[in-house]
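Memo to structure team: turn this sequence into C-alpha cells by end of day. - J.P.
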Amino acid sequence: MRIVNFVLILALLGIGSANAQDDKEMLKSIFDETLQHGEAYQKLDYLSNEIGGRLSGSPEAAAAVEWSKQTMKAYGFDTVFLQEVMVPHWVRGKKEIVKVTGSDIFGPMELKTCALGNSVGTGDQGVLASVVEVKDFDELKKLGKSGVAGKIVFFSRPMDPTLISTFAAYGGAVDQRAKGASEAAKLGALAVVVRSMASNDDDIPHTGGLVYEKGVKQIPGVAISTNSANYLSRALKGDANTKLYIETHCEMLPEVLSYNVIGEMTGTSKPNEYIVVGGHLDSWDLGDGAHDDGAGCVQSIEVLRTLKALNYKPKHSIRAVMYMNEENGLRGGLKYAELAKKNKEKHLAAIESDRGGFTPKGFTISGTKKAVSTLESWKELFEPYGIYDFGKPGSGADIGPLEDQGTALIGFLPDSQRYFNYHHTDADTFDKIDKRELEMGAASMAALVYLIDQHGIDGAH
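Reply from structure team:
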C-alpha cells in the first residue's frame, strides 16, 4: 500500500512539474507577444489625442463608446456588445475663478483652481466671504454654526507624505473633497475650498467627485492647487481680514443614455463562467484621461488581443469590459453587476486596472483566504518579469459590486509614486505614458487571466 501511494505521489509531482513548465512557457509567450507586437500604446494615443477627455454624458464619452466597440470588433473577438446605462451629465462651464481679496497684506491674488465634479455653480454673481480653515470634520464641528455660517470653509489637510502607498495617503485625505461641502453646509457655510489631492507641491489643481448628502443644501465646491493652498494658509494666518471670491459656472444637466462596452472570447468548456478584465472608459474633462483610465481600458483590450494572437482557447469565457461613469457615479459597474446577477452569470474573477499605466508591481485581491493563497502561489512565475507584490487587500471601484456574488476581485498594482501628480488634472495626458511600462502592465494582466483560466482561483465561490 505504501509503495502504491509513493508511486502515486511521484506521478502527481510529475504532473505538477509539467504544468509549472507549461505555465512558464506560456507566460514567456504572453510577454514576448505583448512587448514585440502590442498595440495598447497606439490605441491609447488615439483614445487620448483624437477623442480626449471623456466625462460621462459628453460627446467625447459617446465617441469613446463607439471607438471601443469598433476596436474590439476589428480584433475579431467572439462577441462585442453594449450594455445600456443611464449616467449623470455634469458640465464644468466657463473657467473658474478663485481670488484672495480683502487683505491689506495678501492679495488680490488669483489661485489655481477648478470646480469639483458634480458641484453646483455660483453663477455670475459669485461668492465673496471670509474664510475659516480646518483640517478635518472634527475641527469643523468644533467651530459650530457661529464660526461657520456665512463663510467659506477651507479644508487644508494634505495627503500624508510618510505613507509609502500614495493610494493610502489619498484615502486618508479624500473625505474632505467628497463630503466636505455637505458637512460645511450643515453649519451654514456658503462654499468650500479643498486642498488638491496631490503628492507634490505644484500649481496644478485636481478635480474629483463631490457627493452631496440627501436633504442637505448644495453649496459650491472647488479645489485649489497645493501651492495655492499653502499660500491661502499663510494669508489666513497673516491677516484675519482675508476673504475669498469664488465664481463657477458648473451645473448638473439631465441624465444621458450611455453604455458599457464588452468584448468576449467564449470559453471552450465552461462558456457560462466568466473572467473579467477591465477599466473605466470615462474620465474627467481636464486633460485626456491617459492614465485615469485610458491606460486600463487599452490594457484590458490588449489582454484579449494577446491571447487571441497566441491562438489560445480559453476554458472560461474572458471579457474585456469598458465601464462607463466610474468618476462621478459608478453607474457602469453597478449596471454590470446587476445584469450579471439577473442573467445568472457566474464570475470566477474580475481584474481592474485603474491605477495608471506605470511599471507593474503585482496584484491586490479581495477574496477568500484560499483565493488570496492561490494568487500568492503564482508569485514566482511573475518574479522573472520584476513583478513581485501579491496578496495585499484591494480591488477596484467598478468590479466592487460583483463582490456579493462571490467573485474574486483583483486590482492591477503598478508603481504608484507618480500617479497623484496627474490624477484628475489637465496634466493627465498621453505624453506622460511610457510605452514599455504600459505594455508590461498589459502582459502581466494577460498572464494572470491565463493562470486563472487554467487553474481557477480556489475559494472564489
